[in-house]
Design brief:
The protein is an alpha/beta fold. It contains eleven helices and eleven strands. The chain has two domains: 201 residues, 2-enoyl-CoA Hydratase, Chain A, domain 1 (Alpha-Beta Complex); 36 residues. A six-stranded parallel β-sheet has the order 8-5-3-2-1-11, with helices on both faces. A three-stranded mixed β-sheet has the order 4-6-7. Strands 9-10 form a two-stranded antiparallel sheet.
């Protein structure tokens, strides 16, 4: 009887031992995909943070951000960079689809990922700082902001080698933009992937540092779970987009000019105030 009891305990121990690794592996075999197209705004930063939090809560193996952006706010870019660095799961930035770009602030966001990838026929760079209206900055301010950004990208590219760091600095100093092939040659990105399935295959087995700890990406057999923006996030993203704000400003100014040229009415003036306000 004692032998039978020992055998049962031993068998149970083996069962638990073999089950637990499989359970852990099953938890990790999912990647969370976020897709964003547009300017870098606080809404984007909140969306990325929600994705990271969701991935951590569900034990996802990685977060993949499919990025297509002309750039945006520096403060928001630095906030996104900090959220990537604090993430408990690997964050992979993938510039896609074909024809997409990670210009200006988008290039820094790409460098901030634990791994970086580009689809063919995409572009990264042109990160020279400009004003929110796209105008050139005053020389002293430009120099100060540029030096700060160059120090930032040097930190981000230290592990990628001298060629990657030099290219990153040229993106700021000279507004240089490069193709996926040029970025890969310089070591600024890890792979060029035709699409998401190709990306998962190519990054499988890659070691990245997450909170200074080496993590091996297990993506080849991972399932894909998309996490789109919520309706509220989409609305806010649209409302604070530079394109819409510029359009409202133009309409507002024109409406006020009409009101001033034809005093006595109130409709044009009201429209102008609402658009600008």
């Amino acid at each position: 009887m004692r032998r039978l009891g020992l055998f049962f305990i031993f068998s149970l121990g083996i069962s638990l031992f073999t089950f637990l690794p499989l359970h852990t592996q099953a938890q990790s075999q999912e990647v969370l995909v976020l897709e964003v197209e547009g300017a870098v705004t606080p809404v984007m930063a909140d969306y990325f943070q929600r994705g990271i939090d969701t991935a951590a809560a569900t034990s996802a193996t990685a977060v993949i951000i499919q990025l297509d952006t002309p750039g945006g706010l520096v403060d928001t870019t630095l906030e996104i960079m900090q959220s990537f660095h604090a993430a408990p799961v690997p964050v992979i930035v993938y510039i896609s689809p074909k024809g997409a770009q990670a210009a200006s602030a988008g290039s820094i966001i790409t460098m901030a990922g634990h791994a970086a990838a580009m689809a063919p026929e995409t572009v990264i760079g042109a990160a020279s700082p400009v004003g929110q209206d796209g105008a050139d900055l005053e020389e002293t301010i430009f120099r100060k902001v540029s030096e700060d950004l160059k120090a930032t990208v040097r930190n981000l590219t230290t592990e990628r080698g001298e060629a990657a760091t030099q290219l990153a600095e040229e993106m700021i100093d000279d507004a240089r933009a490069v193709t996926a092939e040029e970025a890969l040659e310089a070591g600024l990105i890890d792979v060029i992937a035709e699409d998401l399935p190709a990306l998962l295959q190519q990054l499988d087995g890659t070691t990245v540092l997450v909170n200074n700890e080496p993590v091996v990406l297990e993506t080849a057999a991972a399932s894909v779970r998309e996490l789109p923006m919520t309706s509220i996030e989409q609305l806010l993203f649209l409302l604070i987009s530079p394109v819409l704000l510029g359009l409202l400003l133009t309409i507002g100014v024109q409406a006020i000019l009409i009101e001033l040229s034809s005093p006595g009415g109130w409709v044009a003036g009201l429209i102008g105030v609402l658009c600008i306000g």
